[in-house]
Amino acid sequence: MENVIVITGGSRGIGAATALLAARQGYRICINYHADDQAAEAILSQFRALGAEAIAVRADVSVEDEIIQLFLRVDDELGPITALVNNAGTIGQQSRVENMSEFRLLNVMKTNVVGPMLCAKHALLRMARRHGGQGGAIVNVSSVAARLGSPNEYVDYAASKGALDTFTIGLAKEVAGEGVRVNGVRPGYIHTGFHALSGDPDRVSKLEPGLPMGRGGYPEEVAEAILWLLSDKASYATGSFIDLGGGR
């Protein structure tokens, strides 16, 4: 059976690194992206250079109608999904809780919690044995922030990742008997463009001296853990987490 992977937020950062590693391992790939057509096209050309079969699908994964369309395209163009990486996420500007708006909080929760739950739902309708599927694996991209709480920065983001971790544990137990494994990775400070969203693009470099390993991480290091969890090498792992925080 061909391995078919859907990676949300796959046009840059950890998502793109995961997609490129999957391409090298022979997966057929769907990268989902929210808005940046140019970034999606750029990574598709890298897949073509590797000879990998890949599509890029624009969709807001916090909106179920758009998720449904995303998965229908995967069905039509790549075949039955075997792997899902819930990587899409958002973060607000650094702020204390008393300055956070309702709009901000709903946006963070919708993208970081509701979105992955809906994507898992539509993947399970295809992968789980009770729905006639052949099994599969899901990896949720959380954050070290789920353990640390991110005070004075983005408690809302940390709370959303805590919710994602709890969802990972519960879903893993729910579908363990149906051929689907569900695990999480918790990256720490990783060199990606994500930090620009919180208003501090140089954040990782500035904080490196205080990290136990003395450096930030790289998207490729996170991708290796994600692909391992998706692979048969992790066949007895479900409801578990790999922390990739350099000792944080």
UniProtKB/TrEMBL annotation:
SUPFAM superfamilies, per the entry: NAD(P)-binding Rossmann-fold domains
What InterPro entries has UniProt attached to this entry? KR_dom, NAD(P)-bd_dom_sf, Sc_DH/Rdtase_CS, SDR_fam
- Cite the Pfam families for this sequence: adh_short_C2 (PF13561)
List the pathway annotation: Aromatic compound metabolism; p-cumate degradation; acetaldehyde and pyruvate from p-cumate: step 2/7
Q: What range(s) does the Ketoreductase domain occupy?
A: 3-178
Q: Does the keyword Cell division apply?
A: no
So what does this thing catalyse? (2R,3S)-2,3-dihydroxy-2,3-dihydro-p-cumate + NAD(+) = 2,3-dihydroxy-p-cumate + NADH + H(+)
Q: Which PROSITE patterns match?
A: ADH_SHORT (PS00061)
Its Gene Ontology molecular function terms?
2,3-dihydroxy-2,3-dihydro-p-cumate dehydrogenase activity
Name of protein: 2,3-dihydroxy-2,3-dihydro-p-cumate dehydrogenase
Organism of this sequence: Pseudomonas taiwanensis
